[in-house]
Structure formats: structure tokens, C-alpha cells
Design a protein that fits this description.
- With 94 residues, the protein is mainly alpha-helical.
- Helix content is 56%, strand content 0%.
- It has a domain of 54 residues.
Amino acid sequence: MRRSIPKPIRNKLDLTDRAQTRLVRKRLSLSDAELAAIVGRIGNSIAAISKEVAKQRANALPKPADVPPAAVIASVTATEQATVTEAPATAPTS
């Protein structure tokens, strides 16, 4: 009597399947520990794991600390515009 091999559920991650785990880790650029932590917290749905990784990466974006205040930008822009309007317009000599 032939028994069919149970097919894996396509949208669920099986942490015991090494090939599937390696593929998901590679696609999402995660380590074993990071993937296990996300699966423990969120669940084994591949869509939920991808969504959580994208959310974590969006939250980890660096804050632009080197941007000067708006007043400094406005004063520099005003001085640049003043120097451009003060420069004499010379006609080409050719």
C-alpha cells in the first residue's frame, strides 16, 4: 500500500527543515538566532516574518543627526542668493 508523503504548507516555515530555513535566512539576510527569535515572537508564517523583518529594518534607519537647523539653512540660502544677484552680468567677448 502506497502512502503519500505529506506536502509542506507553502506559506509556513518549518524550522526543522534545514533547506527551507536556510533559504528564508538567505532571502531575508538573517542569522539563525534572529530567525528563531522572530519565529518565537511572531509565528511561523513566512509573510509575517518578512513583514516583521521589513519593520525592524525601517525602524533601524539612522537618524540624520548632521543636518543643520532650518535657520542655518535659510541664512546660507539667503547669502547665496545675494551673492548671485550682486555678481555683474558680463557679455561674452567672442
